[in-house]
Amino acid sequence: xxxxxxxxxxxxxxxxxxxxxxxxxxxxxxxxxxxxxxxxxxxxxxxxxxxxxxxxxxxxxxxxxxxxxxxxxxxxxxxxxxxxxxxxxxxxxxxxxxxxxxxxxxxxxxxxxxxxxxxxxxxxxxxxxxxxxxxxxxxxxxxxxxxxxxxxxxxxxxxxxxxxxxxxxxxxxxxxxxxxxxxxxxxxxxxxxxxxxxxxxxxxxxxxxxxxxxxxxxxxxxxxxxxxxxxxxxxxxxxxxxxxxxxxxxxxxxxxxxxxxxxxxxxxxxxxxxxxxxxxxxxxxxxxxxxxxxxxxxxxxxxxxxxxxxxxxxxxxxxxxxxxxxxxxxxxxxxxxxxxxxxxxxxxxxxxx
Length: 353
Fold this sequence. Notes:
The chain is an alpha+beta fold. It contains 14 helices and 7 strands.
């Protein structure tokens, strides 16, 4: 499938990274709701079989693939992640920075890290660009040779930001497909109205959308690093102490709001790209919308023809608020007691803006 990676060593590397992806999926794939799970599995099948987004997938073929994949996960369930072998050396699969040094000569980029609910994520892809962005290093990948079911489009580890263009493109397509089920008149509809997704032009429109949202993904990850610098290691320790809980979901939503207030929203205001503003709201989770009703209301009013100034003010005023909320949460976490999660949930409930 990838003739330029036909060497035995690189083939073995792809195999090992994909095996680690299977081990992670075996542990965590069951956490999705049935609807999201089936949608992700459908697109995972599309990726693995190399079919175009516009290709119609045979239901029976997808069903058989899904059964085989679940059977494979059963075989890997409970296994330990495997070390990677590169240039005759073995590396812990979570030592991404060291691994990437050895992959530079092969024009590859790798990441092994943890996402939501402490789920491990791995991928290996073609390196498109390396950018020094202030004191951040940005690695942008294209084609992916190994990936897991979730395939997050952007992640930051330390001061390195990974932007996975192919995964971003697939995530956008999933959202388009999800919207097409009922075609509601919402932020996603407004986003798509800014592009020409007519018959025969879908691939080009998707490329344009991907390029635009790649900038926003980078802005958010920069905001994540800025928020991490402000909150310190105690915040990460708190997240790790409350996995698979409502408190963890709320904590991540609060930090995402802080990260966006620090970086994403100022960048959107500077670029003034209407489609990207619409997609920002289309991509907000239910918890983030719940915690920031003022921002949602200002956006809807703007869409109904009201002036941009109220929305701009909401987008500018959040940083101090969410910073205060985060500091209060850390103060709660530092106090001894067994009701930390409940107290954090109460504080966040009271913080709705």
